[in-house]
């Protein structure tokens, strides 16, 4: 990633007023992670904690995600975390208009970060990057692709927090993701 281009993109996101969320946010939430991530996790949209800090996944679901990252044997500087939508939507909704307005930012972030593996979190990120994927309950843990690179869908960590019965599925999907990472990252060394 060239730092200047990334910095310009970050400033463009921070100044964006393409949808109404740009007027109500506290902070645009752009990125958390290393400069050359091996894996980029794509979530949905910032919540309260993210809006307050300007950093993605720093609330309860973020702690669950960070635990999973550690369990995969990855350091935080080996991963990146982004969202479909960069500004906090009201009442946990995900307005289609904002997803579309942010889409060029999402694509540019993925292009510049150029991770060997992408992981979508939850049904919205999956539907956005792999429109022909089956429902998330079928798709989670099964390798797909985005622009000729491996993409592994996972359940959203918030879903696992709200429904503890999903914990075994989440663990099994992480195991499958681990297997993909071992294969792909060995190849890119
Ligand atoms: N949920 C998301 O999808 N993204 C965040 O940044 C936080 C919670």
- Main pleated sheet: 6 strands, mixed
Number of domains: 1
* Widest sheet, order of strands: 1-3-2-4-6-5
Which small-molecule ligands are present, each listed once? uracil
Mean pLDDT: 96
The CATH topology is Uracil-DNA Glycosylase, subunit E
**N- and C-termini, Cα separation:** 17 Å
Count every helix, treating DSSP H or I runs of 4 or more residues as helices.
9
By secondary-structure content and strand pairing, the structural class works out as alpha/beta
The CATH class, by name, is: Alpha Beta
Low-confidence stretches: none
Strand/helix succession: HHEEHHEHEHHEEHH
CATH homologous superfamily, by name?
A: Uracil-DNA glycosylase-like domain
Global geometry: globular
| CA-atom Rg in angstroms | 15 Å
Number of strands: 6
Percent of residues in helices comes to 40-55%
CATH architecture: 3-Layer(aba) Sandwich
How would you describe the oligomerization state of the chains in this entry? single chain
Q: What does this entry look like structurally?
A:
The protein has a six-stranded mixed beta sheet with strand order 1-3-2-4-6-5, sandwiched between helices. The longest helix has 22 residues. It has one domain: Uracil-DNA glycosylase-like domain (Uracil-DNA Glycosylase, subunit E, 3-Layer(aba) Sandwich), CATH 3.40.470. By secondary structure, the chain is of the alpha/beta class. The chain is globular and about 40 Å long. Helix 1 runs antiparallel to helix 5. Uracil binds next to loops.
């Amino acid at each position: 990633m060239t730092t200047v281009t990334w910095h310009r993109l970050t400033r463009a996101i921070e100044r964006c007023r393409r949808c109404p969320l740009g007027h109500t946010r506290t902070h645009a939430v752009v990125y958390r992670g290393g400069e050359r991530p091996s894996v980029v996790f794509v979530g949905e949209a910032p919540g309260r904690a993210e809006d307050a800090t300007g950093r993605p996944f720093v609330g309860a679901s973020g702690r669950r995600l960070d635990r999973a990252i550690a369990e995969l044997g990855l350091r935080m500087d080996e991963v990146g975390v982004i969202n479909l939508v960069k500004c906090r939507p009201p009442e946990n909704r995900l307005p289609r208009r904002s997803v579309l307005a942010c889409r060029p930012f999402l694509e540019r972030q993925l292009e510049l970060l150029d991770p060997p593996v992408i992981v979508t979190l939850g049904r919205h990120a999956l539907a956005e990057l792999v429109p022909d994927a089956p429902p998330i309950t079928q798709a989670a843990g099964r390798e797909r692709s985005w622009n000729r690179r491996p993409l592994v869908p996972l359940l959203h960590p918030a879903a696992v927090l709200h429904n503890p019965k999903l914990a075994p599925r989440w663990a099994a999907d992480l195991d499958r993701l681990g297997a993909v990472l071992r294969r792909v990252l060995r190849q890119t060394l």
